Amino acid sequence: MTESMTGAQSLVRSLEHAGVDVVFGIPGGAILPAYDPLMDSTQVRHILVRHEQGAGHAAEGYAQATGRVGVCMATSGPGATNLVTPIADAYMDSVPIVAITGQVPSASIGTDAFQEADIRGITMPITKHNYLVTDPAQIPRAVAEAFHIAGTGRPGPVLVDIAKDALQAMTTFDWPAQLDLPGYRPVTRPHAKQVREAARMIVEAKRPVLYVGGGVLKARAHAELRRLAELTGIPVTTTLMARGAFPDSHPLHLGMPGMHGSVSAVGALQKSDLLITLGARFDDRVTGRLDSFAPDAKVIHADIDPAEISKNRTADVPIVGDAREVIADLIVALQAEHEAGHVGDYAEWVELLDHMKATYPLGYDKPGDGSLSPQYVIERLGLIAGPEAIYAAGVGQHQMWAAQFVKYEIPGTWLNSGGAGTMGYAVPAAMGAKVGRPDATVWAIDGDGCFQMTNQELATCAINDIPIKVALINNSSLGMVRQWQTLFYESRYSNTDLHSHRIPDFVKLADAYGCHGLRCESPEDVDSTIEKAMGINDAPVVIDFVVHKDAMVWPMVAAGTSNDDIKVARDLAPRWDREE
Known about the structure:
It is a single chain. The chain is of the alpha/beta class. The chain folds into three domains: 4-172, Rossmann fold (3-Layer(aba) Sandwich); 192-359, 3-Layer(aba) Sandwich (Rossmann fold); 374-546, 3-Layer(aba) Sandwich (Rossmann fold), CATH 3.40.50.970. 37% of the residues lie in helices and 16% in strands. Helix 11 runs parallel beside helix 14.
């Protein structure tokens, strides 16, 4: 006999069938009917956050750390609109999340009812797909489709908006045995002819580079990537979203390309004659001025999203497919080329790049006044916490330093807001990562500006026994904006001083939230303070690292300029070629 239940009960049952174990959310009027049966679920844990933005970023952190679809929930109107930022963030970085929102009763839709917002219309440009459900019988299918769409192909966010009367009405539960989505057929298998052509180009190239993006991590293709690099001896660059896809310690790794990338990675792309682009999208932060990017390079571009191929840079060999399958097939094709006696000779190229890497290593100047260098703090944190830890960064200078000075060896250990650049990401994302991987040590590397946007989630962490650790890089300013003001606005510091060395007292704030607050102001105390934090696991820990405010992120390619104009310090540009 078919069991009768409310739409709200059907929603909870659907989440259970989708394999959900945790939902981050806040109740409110329109979604309230769903919260009653949620109490009875033995499978789905609900974590009550302090702001819907925190729920969305926590779902992202959970998804990035586990590879599973993250879930957040909010009510209608402002509850739903507070999810817009993390939904946009997930869309830009291809993070699989499902957002469940309540909507006003269906008869009131379009009347400007209390707490009404057209969240489906609002999020249409920033979701893979979204739903407005007014018929309770459609809830299971909408949820099933949402999870399938979010987690397959190019991952991304899907929103399911459910009218309150659909949650309250009686229905029967019918989980779909199969999904019929005729307009959604992600291509995962690459075209064999394109792969063979790519292999031919690779063995004929003299200066090839593997330009690796976040799609390689999404496809869990790190092992295949390493085999490809070692089979061919081709140097590797990993973008901001791909840190950890290839071990930093590997001799073929050149580092991160882009606006604040290493000289060797940026130089390799600029001087390459072949870009083997895997799961990357030629983002403006990597290319600099697009018409001057890698001027002599032909392009092999492999991506699961056909819309990305030739969007910014025309591909000579376009390959649509899942990165893992593309790389696996490419390895087979290259082995066939090698057996036929066609082997690429890249020795001179690798020697040049090794020289570049040795001549222009990442580094930083220590403050002359003996104050604390932010780069030193992050470097020591990476060494002490180690490559097994998970690092979630906010946005700004500390994000770039965390990408540069922590050594990433393992996939899934670097979480950040790359495409959207969302301040406030770190603390809730770290919270979600810790929930998804409770046995891992999770550090949020945050700035004092970012931290003050979402630090209320420390209360969520303390109450729910989620012992994240926060390294607060406190330079008392909006550091990256200040850096631009120094370089491009004649040091006119308009509205970038946060006075965070005085207000608030971050140690007292941490204590007030039920966390352990620590402060470190001198280089001599950095190691012992980090080690003390590593030994505290009964509650979250916040370390207020009071650092020098004039530290800058180098190297740097100024916005709108060519990568050839990269500078390793304010007035110092590298020389690409040894013979120069």
